Each structure stands twice: as C-alpha cells, then as structure tokens.
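so my prof wants the structure for this chain in the tokens format not the other one, which i didnt know existed until like an hour ago. anyway here's the sequence
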Amino acid sequence: MFPRLKPRDFLSKCVILSFLAPVLLPIAQAEFESEGWLWEAPIESEGIAAGFVRMELTLDVLDQSQRSLHDLRILDETEALVPHVIFRPPVREYSQTWNPVQLINRTYQEGEHARVTLDFGERTLKNHVRVRVPGDNYRRYAVLEGSETGGGWETVDTTWLFRIAINGLVVDAETFSFPANDFRYLRLTVFNMEDEMGRIEIAAVETSHAEVGESERVEIEAAARTVEPEEDEQDQTIFDIDLGNRNLPIAELQMAVSTPYFYRAYELSGRDTEILEDRRKTETGWDVVERDAPWRVVRRGVLYRIQQGETSDERLSIKNPFPPYRYLRLRVFNGDDSPLGYSASDISATRRSLSSLVFENDPLHQYRLLFGNEKAAPPNYDLAHSVENVAATNAPAVTVLPGIAIDVIPDRAPWSERYSWAIWVVLIGSVGVVVGLIARNMGQLRPQ
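here's what i got, hopefully its the right format
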C-alpha cells in the first residue's frame, strides 16, 4: 500500500524541484558519453600556468583518428568536455577555384608556335595558369610572359605541357605554377613539337590564385619495395610505399633517377590497410573471408627530365599529394622504353609539421584526450568564434602521452544466434504438444 500524498505536500515538492532543476541539470549533463571512442591519452600539463596552451598531436593520434580530426575530444577529471581549437600549420592550398580568362590577339607561326594574350581587364592576383590544347599525345614547350601595358613583355614562367595516352589511361600536365603577380596581361606561347607541322589551337586558358605557405619539412622513414608486375603490367614499374602511419601531411615524394632524358606518366594510389575481412553468414554461423584492400587513385601526372637548347628541365617529385593513406602504390608507365634508372631505395618522402590543439588550461584540473571514433561528428564550441586568433597564439606547450586502448564491449550476436538450441527445444516441444493433442482428439472420436 503506497502512502497517500496530500495536495499540499505535492505542491511543496514541485516548488522545491523547480528551484533545484537549474542546478541539477548541468551536473547531470556534465559527464560526456564516451561510447564509440577507442583510444584515450593523458595530457601532461604539470607546471603550466593557467591560460591557453598548445598540444601538438602525435603520429599515433593521427593514425587512429579521422582525417578531419573531428573525433578529438578533451575531457577533465570530471568527464566534462573542454573546448579546443585545431591549429593546422600553413600548407600549399590546391583546392582553388579556376576562372576562365579572355583570350585576345591570337597569332601563330606555321609549324613553329601558337601565341595568345590573356586580358584580365584589370590588375588581378594569380599564381597558376592552366592551358588546354588539342591532341592525344604531345610534349610541347610553353612560355608565359607578363606586361602591365600589353608591351615590354617579361618572362613569368616556362614549363612543358604533356598529355600521354597509354593503356586506356590519359595523363596530362598542363599547369604553370609561379610566384604571384598582378599583371593585367599575360602572353602565352606554345611551341610545336619537333617535326609537328600545322597550327596549334589554344582551346582554353584558366587561372587561379592559391595562398602559399610552407611549414617545416620532416623526413619520413618510408619503407619502399619493388612490386613484381602482373602479366598485363609488364610495361610498368611499380613501387609500394609504407609511410608508417595514416593521415600524415605529406609534402613531397622524391625520386632519384639516373636516366639522362625521359618523360613518363605516373599514377599514385593509396589504401589504409592491406587486407580486408568480410563477415559472411553461413549455415554453421559467421565466417570471416579475407581479401586484398582496393587501391584508390590519389594523383596522376608526368615525371620528366628534358633538354631544351643548352638548358634542361626536370620534375622528379610529386608535390603536395595530400594522401590520407598509410600505404601508397606508385606506377610509372614505361611504354616501349626501358625502365628508368632507379630502385625502391631511391624513393623518399617528407611531411610538414603536425596539427595542434589549443585549449584553456587550469592547473587545478587534469586532462585527457579521446580519439579514434569513425562516426563522431565535429564538436560545436564557441571558443573559435569568441576568442580572436586563439589558434594562432604563441601558447605554452603541453604534451599528450602515449595512447591507451579503451576497453570496448564487443557487439553481442543476436539472441536467436546465442540461444539457437533453446529455439529448437521450444519448436520440438511445440510439435510434441500438437502431436499429443491430435492423438488425444483422435482417440476420442467414435464411429457414427
């Protein structure tokens, strides 16, 4: 029998709870639900005064986190979230927008070169020019000049324009990259290939400006090995490269090539793991089948060393590939030529400085970092918007210690799979009951 609550007592309790709710709710909501996170790491901040601090991420944290770093969380000893801002060192930005430009004063010399002037209408800042010219296979020398008035041209950049079609794959390199200028006019000259007659048609030209910044370069201990090509890959040289970790800010892949003059198309692909495990349901339960992880294309381009008159030009590196993968595969297409003079030991890689987290430190608290949650959405903190230039501050450094795996309770199989024997017992018992009822009713039947 429950005690009967008088109306006066009920109203009194409601009034008390209404006053306590603003205090109790923040306490109830302060604890962060860490389900889904696989790793945690203590943060060493002893001896650091109160205020904003910077914590550089480690290779292990990057390897286990999302590429976007959306799954990073800082918690104090009360399990309350601590707002943070991600600071990424400046890098070359290649996600710029390409804009068409007006082409005027087209001219050409039969069998020698085609020329066109780019008119921006006013002074315009730019540091990339992309050229579209016809042809399936070509290697054409190009010169870019600048002027403020349309006369008195000064050389801005020279490059080689490539398009290589091999085995159904088309690879091109048609971009000038140069220090930013604001010339109103640029003049583009594209020279015919040797023994190429007729007129070259400059189909289109696009320009862009990308902010350029460089951070410190660090050598990566990359392990490269030569891969034996398959039967349909005999015209390729293939290297597999293990960078050691995922999500590294790769700055450049370099190759030391002894061959004097050449130009070859390449394809760079990546993946995070070598083997994938697929769970398949069979009559006896779940079976695990292993298969090779697929490769995803990261970049295509051209490697070359070419002589032009008394000078030579070369491109023996892949700059700013931005691969989020640990494992890379480099294919160099040789066509009918002999493989280039290099080996796996001639491949090296560099990366930029790692990203950091900036947060407000309180010496009275202890902090830890959670990471490793593929499904986590980015946190929504006021810190980045309410404190000006908080990420750019020259804050004292704190250290994140080695990560510790969080004990995760594995997903349990469905009840029907864990207790399949019980289902059979119930089914057999039910069938027995039905058979017994039928037999009993049959025995009670009397002939008419």
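also thought this was worth mentioning. The radius of gyration is 33 Å.
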